[in-house]
Automatic annotation (TrEMBL):
Catalytic activity: L-aspartate + ATP = 4-phospho-L-aspartate + ADP
Family membership: Belongs to the aspartokinase family.
EC numbers: 2.7.2.4
Family matches, as InterPro entries: AceGlu_kinase-like_sf (IPR036393), ACT-like_dom_sf (IPR045865), ACT_Aspartokinase (IPR054352), ACT_dom (IPR002912), AKii-LysC-BS (IPR041740), Asp/Glu/Uridylate_kinase (IPR001048), Asp_kin_monofn (IPR005260), Asp_kinase (IPR001341)
Keyword Nucleotide-binding attached: yes
Domain ACT: 264-348
Keyword line: Amino-acid biosynthesis, ATP-binding, Kinase, Lysine biosynthesis, Nucleotide-binding, Transferase
Source organism (scientific name): mine drainage metagenome
BP GO annotations: homoserine biosynthetic process; lysine biosynthetic process via diaminopimelate; threonine biosynthetic process
One Gene Ontology molecular-function label: ATP binding
Pathway(s) annotated for this protein in UniProt: Amino-acid biosynthesis; L-threonine biosynthesis; L-threonine from L-aspartate: step 1/5; Amino-acid biosynthesis; L-methionine biosynthesis via de novo pathway; L-homoserine from L-aspartate: step 1/3
Gene3D superfamilies named in the record: Acetylglutamate kinase-like, VC0802-like
This protein's name: aspartate kinase
SUPFAM superfamilies referenced in this protein's UniProt entry, alphabetically: ACT-like (SSF55021), Carbamate kinase-like (SSF53633)
Length: 406
């Protein structure tokens, strides 16, 4: 007997028929002799709607009340799935995050799971009851409901799998696995049998929404075997695993994009020691995360242009911080641009092979796409380009690195 955590995303529990379909899948796993805990998201679209309600009432809402609101979508689906399982003759019950509890830190709206008390759940499972846990939610140190950030049910599932010492964590979604790039944009995207934790971590943090970044961090840390597969078709998915489990290593394993970035240019900012600290210090103090940074060469030795990116959601706050310090920073102009996309090429092979970045620049040049900012790390190269070129860039790069399905 294996112990398995099965997680179903928003589309998979999108209506009552789909919830019944999920119940049948869970039943099949139980009939194979396995012990099962299920984690579900809210029905697709519900969390967006709840977020929107909060914003309509107050753009600067209290994050604790935001969590009280947005966590409710999952409470509906756990109850419905438990009923659907009971209809199939199975013993099942729902678990809200606070009922275990799933303990998190106090960062409401983007909380991190700190521990899960599985005592009650394990006792119920030992009696043959299927546990259906709400994803996305937990209990903060203030004893109030917290949520884990968008896409957080993946992290709930992996954390539960780690806490239960499960043999596997299966993430059921609306695609049948992890692809070389988003299959909804590049029709020639190729499904991967396996991908390393490190590569998946880069893919996720660079924009591939198929797994929340923290779920991959958690899986890597606790060595949870994660499989991503379809909740609609019966076929093996993609396994996220250790590097030594993968025989055929690709130079480039995937391409990701993120539309969540915005670019800010400070024109003619003073070129003297301490200026970068004077800009990025206050941004950090105001919770604005800066991602890519490029500083141009100073032509006159006195001033230079500085360009960097922040999350789109943080753009207004970043601009306010910089405008408030215009005199101190002595820049000429502030130029924001949110019509940008970050495209990233990822692969473990880059550690030992040169030329990956060059191929990226060449390919984009051939398509007449201008690169605005570049950043690199050991296993990825990212470029910022105009948003209109997203599809064109992804398809061209996908072909250039030989990733197209044959
Ligand atoms: P769920 O609601 O099940 O959590 P998500 O919408 O969060 O599903 O994630 C699945 C989506 O991730 C897919 O529909 C797909 O468009 C997108 N995606 C982005 N990059 C990739 C990739 N490399 N492989 C597979 N899917 C990807
Ligand atoms: N329902 C939450 C969201 O839409 C969590 C999730 O789907 O993973 O972000
Ligand atoms: Mg998701």
């Amino acid at each position: 007997m294996a112990r398995i955590v099965m997680k179903f995303g928003g589309t998979s529990v999108g209506d009552c028929d789909r919830i019944k379909n999920v119940a049948r899948r869970v039943k099949a796993e139980v009939e194979r002799g396995n012990e099962v805990a299920v984690v579900v998201s809210a029905m697709s679209g519900v969390t967006n709607q709840l977020v929107d309600y909060c914003k309509q009432i107050s753009p600067l809402y209290d994050p604790r009340e935001y969590d009280a609101v947005v966590s409710t979508g999952e409470q509906v689906t756990i109850g419905l799935l438990a009923i659907a399982l009971q209809e199939l003759g199975l013993d099942a019950r729902s678990w809200c995050g606070w009922q275990l509890p799933v303990r998190t830190d106090g960062a409401h709206g983007k909380a991190r799971i700190e521990s899960i008390d599985t005592t009650g759940m394990l006792a119920a499972m030992a009696k043959g009851q299927i546990a259906v846990m709400a994803g996305f939610q937990g209990l903060g140190p203030d004893n109030r409901i917290s949520t884990l950030g968008r896409g957080g049910s993946d992290t709930s599932a992996v954390a539960l799998a780690a806490a239960l010492h499960a043999d596997r964590c299966d993430i059921y979604t609306d695609v049948d696995g992890i692809y070389t790039t988003d299959p909804r944009i590049v029709a020639k995207a190729r499904k991967l049998d396996k991908i390393t934790y490190e590569e998946m971590l880069e893919l996720a943090s660079l924009g591939a929404k198929v797994l929340q970044t923290r779920s991959v961090e958690m899986a890597m840390k606790h060595r949870v075997r994660v499989q991503v597969l379809s909740s609609f078709v019966d076929m093996p998915g993609t396994l996220v695993c250790d590097e030594d489990e993968i025989v055929e290593k690709e130079l480039v394993s995937g391409i990701a994009y993120s539309r969540d970035e915005a670019k800010i240019t400070l024109v003619k900012v003073a070129d003297r020691p301490g200026v970068a600290a004077a800009i990025f210090g206050p941004l950090a103090d105001n919770n604005v995360n800066v991602d890519m940074i490029v500083q141009n060469v100073s032509e006159d030795g006195k001033s230079t242009d500085l360009t960097f990116t922040v999350g789109k959601a943080d753009l207004d706050r970043a601009l306010k911080v910089l405008e408030d310090r215009k005199t101190e920073l002595a820049y000429e102009r502030l130029v924001p641009d949110s019509n940008v996309v970050k495209v990233s090429v990822i692969g473990m092979g880059m550690r030992s092979h040169a030329g990956v970045a060059q191929k990226m620049f060449q390919t984009l040049a051939e398509k007449g796409i201008n690169i605005l900012v570049i950043s690199t790390s050991e296993i990825k190269v990212s470029v910022l380009i105009a948003e209109d070129y997203t599809e064109l860039a992804l398809r061209a790069l996908h072909s250039a690195y030989g990733l197209d399905v044959q």
